[in-house]
Design a protein that fits this description.
It is a multi-pass membrane protein. The protein is mainly alpha-helical and about 300 residues long. The chain has helices at about 15-30, 35-45, 50-75, 80-105, 110-140, 155-160, 175-195, 200-210, 215-240, 245-265, 270-290, and strands spanning about 1-5, 10-15, 165, 170-175. The model has no long low-confidence stretch (mean pLDDT about 75).
Length: about 300
């Protein structure tokens, strides 16, 4: 079933795009990530221009996040106060990201910049998550690897921030500036890379802010929902790279996929989920790095209007 994408200016197999949306929706509900970190690279591999892939994937992540966030809200797995602080920072971050996107686009380097960002960030996050999660998973099988559970600690960068506020659902007493800074960083990357930011947000919430694991996934999806809405609007107003047909096809699969993923997440061990996510992140980084080393079949980019 061939479908024409007006902004990307090419025809694609609609069924493949829908299945891709279902796969990323499944990841959204299962790991608390928007799925954009996988959607954008796969769209690029399929032949979609990177700028269109990044802008359209952000709108698809919104739909996947709605479905997953509703499920976790019913289970009372969202810290709305923490999420609100992250959303405030995320909206500011989208403005910063829009400026950088237009600058790199004008310089003709946006496609390369998107690929390099994926390789560097995904590799770093994947390695960090694997180092943290693998020993915990193996400890269940090997007695000698077992250790006393460590107390959740805030990163020194966040403990030095002024002002304190109690986030009851997360079990934290930290400065509201900490989640705002996290949201700002993720918002900037969402604008540049078309990601929901969950693959980066979840580790930051766990290991940086020290949030309770019980509310990390739901709060991540809650923040991603509003940040990607702001990102899609910003792209539509500034870069004109959102392909509504492509986004609609992705949404068809992602909404149902997120519900299935959320059900799997509630039944699986958290340590196993983190190891699986780390492996997926590292594989995507490896493929993106390989893509930077060979000449593409078609050399083109989407120029600013």
């Amino acid at each position: 079933m061939d479908v024409y994408l007006p902004i990307a200016n090419l025809s694609v197999n609609g069924l493949i795009i829908v299945l891709l949306g279902g796969a990323t929706g499944f990841l959204s509900g299962m790991f608390g990530v928007g799925g954009g970190f996988l959607t954008t690279p796969l769209l690029i591999f399929y032949g979609i221009p990177p700028t269109v892939a990044a802008a359209s994937a952000a709108s698809q992540v919104t739909g996947a996040s709605v479905s997953g966030a509703v499920y976790h809200a019913r289970r009372k797995g969202i810290d709305y106060q923490m999420g609100a602080m992250m959303i405030a920072g995320g909206i500011v971050g989208t403005g910063i990201g829009a400026f950088l996107f237009r600058l790199l686009q004008a310089l003709g380097q946006i496609d390369v910049a998107i690929s390099i960002l994926y390789v560097v960030i995904l590799a770093g996050v994947g390695i960090k998550m694997a180092i943290e999660a693998v020993p915990e998973l193996l400890a269940d099988r090997f007695e000698r690897l077992k250790r006393a559970p460590s107390k959740r600690r805030h990163h020194p960068l966040f403990t030095s921030l002024p002002g304190r506020y109690r986030f009851y659902r997360s079990g934290l007493y930290i400065s509201p500036l900490a989640p705002m800074l996290v949201g700002m960083a993720v918002g900037t990357l969402t604008m540049l890379m078309g990601i929901g930011g969950g693959f980066l947000l979840v580790p930051l919430m766990l290991y940086g802010l020290g949030m309770s694991a019980a509310v990390v996934v739901g709060t991540s999806l809650f923040q991603i929902l509003f940040t990607t809405i702001a990102t899609t609007m910003m792209h539509a107003l500034t870069t004109n790279a959102v392909d509504i047909v492509l986004a609609a096809l992705l949404l068809l699969g992602s909404v149902s996929g997120a519900q299935i993923g959320a059900k799997f997440a509630s039944a699986a061990k958290p340590e196993l989920l983190r190891v699986v996510l780390a492996v997926i992140v590292l594989l995507v980084a490896l493929f993106m790095a390989a893509g930077l080393t060979y000449r593409p079949r078609e050399i083109f980019t989407v120029a600013p209007l």
